[in-house]
Each structure stands twice: as structure tokens, then as C-alpha cells.
């Protein structure tokens, strides 16, 4: 218990000591709190002054930054002003960037509410922007005007045509000596017809950029008017050079064929030039205003007004030709015109694709259809014209008839238009390829010519001359086909078949013309071997008087044949020599044999030359003068 009591006493003493320590610590901490309060009261004014100083520095920094920003914008505006005053022609990209900087400056100053000089700066910048708009508009006008100059037609056609609509007198001076000796459209084959570069390619992006800027700035009407007026003026100048005149159907029918050919040749060039110019205008209009909210179709429609007017005049001329009086020769001018219309068809459809141009598009396509219809009818009907030809031209010497020459020339010219004719036949014929259709029509034409020649041959009372006439004309047909593209269409079978017809007429001629003369030289004498003709006359029934009569008869027949047939004409040397040789092959052996057998019976006569009038080589020489014609005989005289 004592020990326990001691422990309790010790614990109590410890607790008392701890309480004292606690009270001491509380007293110490209390003194610290008092001192901190005093310190805080001392520091607070310092803290307030420091915060105020910090806020002042921040406001100064902000003011400096605002001043720097304003100064930077002023510098930018001044630099932009210098760029704008230099103009966009120096550097368009820099110019447009400068305009953008000005617009940014407007936005910058507009947001600076406390900037006392804001209004002055905004007025200056807006005035500069207005000036820049006028300058860029002037630049657009300068570019479109500078590069809207007329161009020469040879830059379109690739040849130097005289861009003047020829008068009838001019056409006669062109040197055409016969109808269709030259075809105007064929002159164009050597020319490369192309869409002209109306504006240099390097300028088009500049115009596009400026147009885009003008439209964005709300100057669409100015842009529209400037472009339309400049391009319309250039187009008018280009087309004015053509001097196209309006001609009616009556005007066309009054024209001589040469004059009409000349006009159609120029019509083809003028139409191609007009279409190419309009095509060029459509393309640059599309390129300049590509991707821009702009009524480019309406703009093109208005600037192309003059071109459309010229095109309408040209189409009306084509319509007048198609509806004028028909003739075989006119087929070729229709084919020329159809060919040109077919070539420009795709461009016409693109140029006049807009609904506002539909009338022009339909007129062009309508003319092409009319030309095709008329040309097709004339092509097919030519067979009937040939077969029913009743021309009264008399060919007294049996030479090639003018009808044959005209028809063969017609056929030859048709082969210059093979591709065009095939296009034509594709529009109207179905069920077979165009080449076989072409073969059928041409075969019918040639047969119609042959039938007509058979009828014309009946005017000859001399059967021999009739055969010469038919041989001449059929041979002319065959040789012409062989030397032309027609041989690929009509074929070798046609050529060989008609060569045999020529041979049949030649054989018929030889039999009719020379049969009697050869028969005169033919006497059957039954004489024994080794016995002379004179010693056996009584036994053979052949008298000296008969032989003399035969010589006289042959001489008279030969002279008569010489007189007639030296006036006949075989213009083809090959046929002429062939017929001469065929005569000589029959006549000379018969004559030489007759002279050898019976010549001694007349040699002792007082006038032997009365009977033995010709030596074989003399006959051969005279045969060489056959078929030369009246002109050759007169020249020899």
C-alpha cells in the first residue's frame, strides 16, 4: 500500500508539473498571437501599395500592347496603301492581299471602342477600300479591253482567206472553167479549223480572279457590263470583216453555177469562223466565271447577239440553197454544206445549250436535216435523171457522148464525198452497211447510163458506127472506173463484165464494117497442086474478069471505109490501137493471100494499078489513120 501510495503521490506531482507546463505554453502562444496581429497590422498597408503597383504595371503593359497593335495595323494599312496605289497590274496577288489587309484593319479598328482616333482611321481605310474597288474594276476593264481585239480568219482556218463576200464578177474571176472542176469545201481540207485563242491563256486566270473579287464585293453588275461590252465589241469586229449578206431563194436561183459555188465556198468558211468564234467566246466566258455566282449564260447570250445574227443570216442562205431549184450539179454544193453543218453540229449544241439560245440551236439542226433530206433525194434520184435523159446532142463521129462524160464526172466527184455520203445514208437507210448501199446506188446509176446509151445508139443508121459509139462509151466508163476510187466500190467483177461488153461491140463492129470487104477477097479455087491459077481458071469457074471485078470492088469498099472511118473518133488510144490491130489481123492476111493467088492475072493489064492499087504496107498505113476524127483529117490536108 505504501508503494502504491508513493506512486499515486508521484503521479499527482507529475500531473501538477504538466499542468504548469501547459499553462506556460498557453501564455507563450498568446504572446505570439498578439505579436502576429501587430505585424499584420504593420504589413497590410505595404501589401495594398504593392498590389496597386502590380495593377498599374499590368495596365501599362496592356496599353503598350494596344498601342503596338494599333501601330502594326497603321503600318499594314500604309503598306497596303502603297501596294494599291501601284495598281494590280504590277502584282495582282499582292494587290488582293493588300485589299484583304485593309478589310482586316476595318474589323480591327471597329472593335476598338476606346480608341479616340478610330473614326478617322476607319474613314481613311474605307476610302482606300473604295479606291481599291475602283482600281480593280478599272484593271478588269483594262484587261478585257486590251485583250478583246479582232483576230484574222486565217488564225481560225489555218489558211489566209480573203474575208470578203465575193460578188458574181469575183466568182467568175476565180478561174473555174467548168461546173465542179473544183469544190469549195475541198479547199478547207488543207485548213485546220480550230477554236481561236481569243484571250491569252495567261490572262484568263487574272480575269477569273478579278471577276471573283468584283462579285464578292457586290460589283456583279459592273463586272457583267464590262465583260459583256468588251467581248461583244471584239466579236462584232471579227464578224464585220466577213461582210455576210442576206440572200433569198430567188437570189440563189438567179446565180450562175460558178458564182453559187464561190458563195458556198465562202459560206462554209464564214460559218466555220462564226461557230469557232462563238465557241471560243463560250469557253472563255465559262472559264472566267467558273465557280462564281454569276449568270454567265445570260452574259454569253447578250454578248453573242451579233454572232447569232450572222449565224442566222448564214443559215438562211443555206435554207435558200436547199429549197432552190434542183439540178445534178447542186448535189455537190448541198453535200459541201451538209458536211460543214455536220462538222459544227457538236459545237453548236454546246454553244447554244442554254434555253435562251434554243431557237438558234433548233435552226442549225433543222438546216442540217433539210440539207441531208434534199441531198439524199437528189443522190437517189440521179439514176432516174440519167436513164430518162433526152438530150438531143448528136455525136456524128461515134465518140464519147457528153452525157457519159457528165455522169462519169458526177460519179467521180461522188467518191470525193464518200464519207459524207455514208453519213447521209446512215440517216436514211437501215438494214445494211453504208458501203453496200453506196454500191447499189452507183451500180444503178451506171446501168441507167448504159441503158440510155443503148437508146441513143439507135440514132445511127450505120451499124458499124453504132458499135463504135457503144464501144467508145462503155470503154470510157470502164477506164474511168479503173482509174478512180469507184473501182473499190463497183468491184473487179463489174469492170471485167463491162470489158467483155466492149469486146463484144468491137467484134460486132469488125464483122459489120469489114465482113463484106473480107468476103470480096475470098474465092474458093479447086486447083491441083503445082498448077497455076491462070491455067486453071476455066476449070475452077473463076474468070479474069471476076478477079478484076473483085480487085475493083475491094478498092472501092476500102476507099469508102477509109473516107468514113477516118472521120470517126475513138479518143482512147488503147481502144483505137486495139481496133486497128484487129482489122489488120483479118484484112491484111486476106488481102496478101488474094494478091498472091490472083495478082498475076492483072499485072499484065494495060493499067495494072487500076486493080493492084494498094500494097499490103500501104493498107496498113491507111488503117493507122482510122478513128482520128474530122479535126485530124483537116490538119493533114
Q: Count of DSSP E strands?
A: 0
Could you state the oligomeric state of the chains shown? single chain
Instruction: Give the strand content.
Output: under 5%
Largest sheet: none
Unreliable segments of 5+ consecutive residues: 159-192, 527-536
Q: Roughly what is the average pLDDT, rounded to an integer?
A: 81
Report the principal-axis shape.
rod-shaped
Radius of gyration: 55 Å
Give the count of structural domains. Answer: 4
What does this structure look like?
By secondary structure, the chain is mainly alpha-helical. It has 4 domains: about 20-135, no CATH class; about 150-155 and about 195-385, Exocyst complex component Exo70 (Monooxygenase, Up-down Bundle), CATH 1.20.1280.170; about 385-505, no CATH class; about 515-520 and about 540-635, Exocyst complex component Exo70 (Monooxygenase, Up-down Bundle), CATH 1.20.1280.170. Helix content is about 75%, strand content about 0%. The protein is built from 25 helices and no strands. The chain has helices at about 1-85, 90-110, 120-145, 155, 170, 185, 205-215, 220-240, 250-255, 255-290, 295-305, 305-325, 330-350, 360-385, 400-415, 420-430, 435-455, 465-480, 485-520, 535-540, 545-565, 575-600, 600-605, 615-625, 630-635. Helix 8 (about 220-240) packs antiparallel against helix 10 (about 255-290), helix 10 packs antiparallel against helix 11 (about 295-305) and helix 15 runs parallel beside helix 18. The radius of gyration is 55 Å and the shape is rod-shaped. The termini are far apart. About 30% of the residues are buried. The model is unreliable at about 160-190 and about 525-535 (pLDDT under 50).
Amino acid at each position: 500500500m505504501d508503494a502504491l501510495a508513493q506512486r499515486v503521490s508521484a503521479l499527482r506531482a507529475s500531473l501538477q508539473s504538466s499542468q504548469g507546463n501547459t499553462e506556460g505554453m498557453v501564455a507563450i502562444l498568446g504572446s505570439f498571437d498578439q505579436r502576429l496581429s501587430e505585424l499584420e497590422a504593420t504589413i497590410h498597408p505595404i501589401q495594398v501599395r504593392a498590389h496597386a503597383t502590380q495593377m498599374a504595371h499590368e495596365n501599362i503593359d496592356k496599353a503598350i500592347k494596344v498601342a503596338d497593335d494599333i501601330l502594326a495595323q497603321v503600318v499594314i494599312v500604309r503598306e497596303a496603301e502603297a501596294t494599291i496605289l501601284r495598281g494590280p497590274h504590277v502584282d495582282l496577288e499582292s494587290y488582293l492581299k493588300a485589299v484583304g489587309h485593309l478589310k482586316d484593319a476595318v474589323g480591327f479598328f471597329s472593335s476598338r471602342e476606346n480608341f479616340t482616333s478610330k473614326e478617322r482611321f476607319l474613314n481613311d481605310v474605307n476610302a482606300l477600300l473604295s479606291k481599291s474597288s475602283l482600281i480593280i474594276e478599272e484593271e478588269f476593264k483594262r484587261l478585257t479591253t486590251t485583250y478583246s481585239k479582232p483576230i484574222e480568219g486565217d488564225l481560225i482556218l489555218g489558211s489566209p482567206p480573203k474575208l470578203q463576200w465575193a460578188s458574181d464578177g469575183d466568182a467568175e474571176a476565180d478561174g473555174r472553167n467548168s461546173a465542179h472542176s473544183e469544190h469549195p469545201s475541198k479547199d478547207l481540207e488543207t485548213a485546220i479549223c480550230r477554236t481561236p485563242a481569243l484571250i491569252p491563256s495567261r490572262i484568263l486566270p487574272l480575269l477569273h480572279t478579278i471577276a471573283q473579287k468584283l462579285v464578292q464585293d457586290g460589283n456583279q453588275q459592273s463586272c457583267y457590263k464590262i465583260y459583256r461590252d468588251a467581248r461583244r465589241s471584239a466579236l462584232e469586229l471579227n464578224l464585220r470583216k466577213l461582210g455576210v449578206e442576206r440572200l433569198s431563194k430567188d437570189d440563189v436561183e438567179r446565180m450562175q453555177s460558178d458564182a453559187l459555188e464561190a458563195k458556198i465556198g465562202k459560206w462554209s468558211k464564214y460559218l466555220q469562223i462564226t461557230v469557232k468564234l462563238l465557241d471560243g467566246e463560250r469557253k472563255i466566258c465559262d472559264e472566267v466565271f467558273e465557280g462564281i455566282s454569276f449568270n454567265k449564260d445570260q452574259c454569253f447570250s447578250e454578248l453573242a447577239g451579233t454572232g447569232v445574227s450572222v449565224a442566222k443570216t448564214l443559215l438562211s442562205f443555206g435554207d435558200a440553197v436547199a429549197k432552190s431549184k434542183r439540178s445534178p450539179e447542186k448535189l455537190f454544193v448541198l453535200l459541201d454544206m451538209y458536211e460543214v453543218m455536220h462538222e459544227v453540229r457538236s459545237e453548236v449544241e454546246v454553244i447554244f445549250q442554254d434555253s435562251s439560245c434554243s431557237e438558234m440551236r433548233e435552226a442549225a439542226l433543222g438546216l442540217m436535216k433539210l440539207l441531208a433530206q434534199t441531198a439524199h433525194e437528189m443522190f437517189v434520184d440521179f439514176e432516174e435523171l440519167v436513164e430518162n435523159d433526152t438530150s438531143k446532142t448528136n455525136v456524128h463521129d461515134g465518140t464519147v457522148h457528153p452525157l457519159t462524160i457528165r455522169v462519169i464526172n458526177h460519179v467521180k466527184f461522188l467518191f470525193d464525198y464518200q464519207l459524207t455520203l455514208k453519213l447521209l445514208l446512215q440517216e436514211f437507210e437501215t438494214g445494211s452497211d453504208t458501203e453496200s448501199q453506196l454500191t447499189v446506188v452507183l451500180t444503178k446509176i451506171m446501168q441507167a447510163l448504159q441503158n440510155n446509151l443503148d437508146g441513143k445508139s439507135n440514132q445511127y443508121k450505120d451499124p458499124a458506127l453504132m458499135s463504135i459509139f457503144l464501144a467508145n462509151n462503155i470503154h470510157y466508163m470502164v477506164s474511168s472506173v479503173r482509174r478512180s476510187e469507184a473501182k473499190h466500190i463497183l468491184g473487179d467483177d463489174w469492170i471485167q463484165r463491162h470489158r467483155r461488153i466492149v469486146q463484144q461491140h468491137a467484134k460486132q463492129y469488125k464483122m459489120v464494117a469489114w465482113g463484106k470487104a473480107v468476103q470480096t477477097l475470098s474465092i474458093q479455087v479447086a486447083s491441083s497442086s503445082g498448077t497455076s491459077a491462070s491455067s486453071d481458071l476455066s476449070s475452077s469457074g473463076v474468070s479474069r474478069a471476076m478477079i478484076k471485078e473483085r480487085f475493083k470492088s475491094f478498092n472501092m469498099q476500102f476507099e469508102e471505109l477509109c473516107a468514113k472511118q477516118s472521120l470517126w473518133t475513138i479518143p482512147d488510144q488503147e481502144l483505137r490501137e486495139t481496133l486497128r490491130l484487129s482489122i489488120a489481123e483479118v484484112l491484111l492476111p486476106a488481102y496478101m493471100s488474094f494478091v498472091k493467088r490472083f495478082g498475076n492475072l492483072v499485072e499484065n493489064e494495060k493499067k495494072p494499078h487500076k486493080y493492084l492499087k494498094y500494097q499490103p504496107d500501104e493498107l496498113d498505113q491507111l488503117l493507122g489513120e482510122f478513128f482520128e476524127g474530122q479535126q485530124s483529117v483537116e490538119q493533114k490536108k
